Every structure is written in C-alpha cells, then in structure tokens.
Amino acid sequence: MSDKPLALVIEDDFDAATIFATALKANGFETEMIHDGAEALKRLETVTPAVVVLDMHLPEVAGTDILRRIRANPAMKDTRVLVATADARMADTVEHLADLVLLKPITFSQVRDLAARLVSAR
C-alpha cells in the first residue's frame, strides 16, 4: 500500500482523465482513473481519497449524485473535490458542494498547479 495520498479521477473522456491523472502524479498523488459513475460509487465504498477530480456528465450515474454521496459521507469530510465540466450552468448548481469548479477545457498545467497547492496545504 502506498503512503502517497490517493486521487480518484472520475472522468469518461480518456484523454482528459489521463491529463488529470498525470498532473496529479507529478505532485505526489497515487492516482486511479474511473470512467463511469457506477464504478466510481463502487470504488468510493472502499477508499477515502484525498482528492477527487469529478466530471459531471458520466455514464451510469451522474456526477452530481456522486458529489452528493461524497459530501454526505462523514469519512470523506476532508476529501477535496474538483469538479471538471464544460457545462457552465451545471458548474453554478454544484459550486456550493465542490472545493473548486474547473470549466473545460482544462490544461495539464492548470491541474498540475492546483495539485501542487493541494499538496502544500496538507
């Protein structure tokens, strides 16, 4: 088991997920990529990630449902959730639940810099 903090990248776009995961790895996170909402909920039953990068439009289960589940779980009270969406209206509706809302497209350097700030805040 790794002593690195865990970051889950819950994103159905493979290229975007790879960019997010690579940026987080560059800042010392152990990363896992999950590409659908049902799988994300299943994984969140067994781990408590330090960070979740969460897309709002996922197959199987919507990102909003996953975000609400994370926020309702006392074990995840310290989990930072970065919402990644191209939908500005959706961003407005979840802003109060997320630690940060990023509007796509999001660059590697943006995620890398945000991950560096998360690491230094720990």
How would you describe what is shown here?
The structure is a single chain. The protein is built from 5 helices and 5 strands. The chain is α/β, with parallel strands linked by helices. The chain has helices at 14-25, 37-44, 63-72, 88-94, 108-121, and strands at residues 6-10, 30-34, 51-55, 80-85, 100-103. It has one domain (6-117): 3-Layer(aba) Sandwich (Rossmann fold), CATH 3.40.50. Strand 4, helix 4 and strand 5 form a beta-alpha-beta unit. The radius of gyration is 13 Å and the shape is globular. The model has no long low-confidence stretch (mean pLDDT 90). A 5-stranded parallel sheet has the order 2-1-3-4-5, sandwiched between helices.
CATH architecture level-2 label = 3-Layer(aba) Sandwich
Query: How confident overall, as mean pLDDT?
Result: 90
* Large-scale geometry: globular
The share of residues in extended strands comes to 15-25%
Can you say what the CATH homologous superfamily is? Response regulator
SSE topology sketch:
Elements: E1 6-10, H1 14-25, E2 30-34, H2 37-44, E3 51-55, H3 63-72, E4 80-85, H4 88-94, E5 100-103, H5 108-121
Parallel strand pairs: 1-2, 1-3, 3-4, 4-5
Helix pairs in contact: 1-5, 2-3
